[in-house]
Amino acid sequence: MQLMEVLRSRRAVRNFSSQPVTQSAVEELIQAAVLAPSAMNRQPWAFAVSVDPTFIQPMAAQAKSFVLEHFSGSGLEPELRGMIENPDYQIFHHAPALILVFATSGAAQDAEDCCLAAQNLMLAARDKGIGSCWIGLARPWLSQPEALEKLNLPPNYRIVAPIILGYPAEWPESHGRKEPVIHWIG
Ligand SMILES: Cc1cc2nc3c(=O)[nH]c(=O)nc-3n(C[C@H](O)[C@H](O)[C@H](O)COP(=O)(O)O)c2cc1C
């Protein structure tokens, strides 16, 4: 695909076919992710991956319970709260694969670096016909030391981008974009 076509046609995908995502496909996406620029070329990222839905399902339940327990009263917009309080709402949308992008350095701007890597990954996925969706709702649980311990990850890792992956049941329509606000300042 041409770059602009990839940019225009990438969508947040939340409905997946039963086709699994292979380890080698994930590895190719991570190779695309690490082409991103980073401050001082520190490349302060690490990737935790599962392509096992039986592993991802319980994580989804745990991350959802955490959000409901800690944010249900006040910290969530009513519309979002209503959505995730629905017992059928699965935080990872039953995706067959999950990539967690962690910032590893503690240096200023390491989160920005990881966001760029995550965007590369999602665009490369689109190019390969793989759908992706960034799941911010999983961050509160993944930010807990207990979660890192449970996943056998180093305690200094900071979650930036939980991204689900899978072959789309269908590509969603675009929700469109607002006109950009542009100030010509010189
Ligand atoms: C930082 C961030 C957090 C997001 N968190 C969630 C989430 O928790 N659950 C979800 O289903 N989608 C989530 N999304 C996906 C957005 O809702 C989606 O990208 C947006 O509606 C625009 O749609 P598009 O990606 O198809 O253009 C998130 C996206 C971003 C960038």
3D architecture notes:
Helix 2 crosses helix 5. The chain is globular. By secondary structure, it is of the alpha+beta class. The chain has a four-stranded antiparallel beta sheet with strand order 1-2-4-3. The mean pLDDT is 96. The chain is 39% helix and 14% strand. It has one domain: NADH Oxidase (3-Layer(aba) Sandwich), CATH 3.40.109. The chain contains seven helices and four strands; from the N terminus they run H-H-E-H-H-E-H-E-H-H-E. It binds flavin mononucleotide. The site of flavin mononucleotide has 9 residues, from strand 3. Flavin mononucleotide binds next to strand 3.
The gist of it:
The chain has helices at residues 3-9, 23-33, 53-71, 78-85, 110-127, 139-142, 145-150; strands at 45-50, 97-103, 131-134, 158-166. The chain is an alpha+beta fold and 186 residues long. The radius of gyration is 17 Å and the shape is globular.
Structural features:
single chain; 186 residues; alpha+beta; NADH Oxidase; 4-stranded antiparallel β-sheet; 4 strands; binds flavin mononucleotide
CATH superfamily: NADH Oxidase
Report on the biggest sheet. Answer: 4 strands, antiparallel
Number of strands: 4
- Residue fraction in strands: 5-15%
The helical percent reads 25-40%
In terms of structural class, how would the helical and strand content be classed?
A: alpha+beta
Task: Round the mean pLDDT to the nearest integer and report it.
Answer: 96
| Intertermini distance | 36 Å
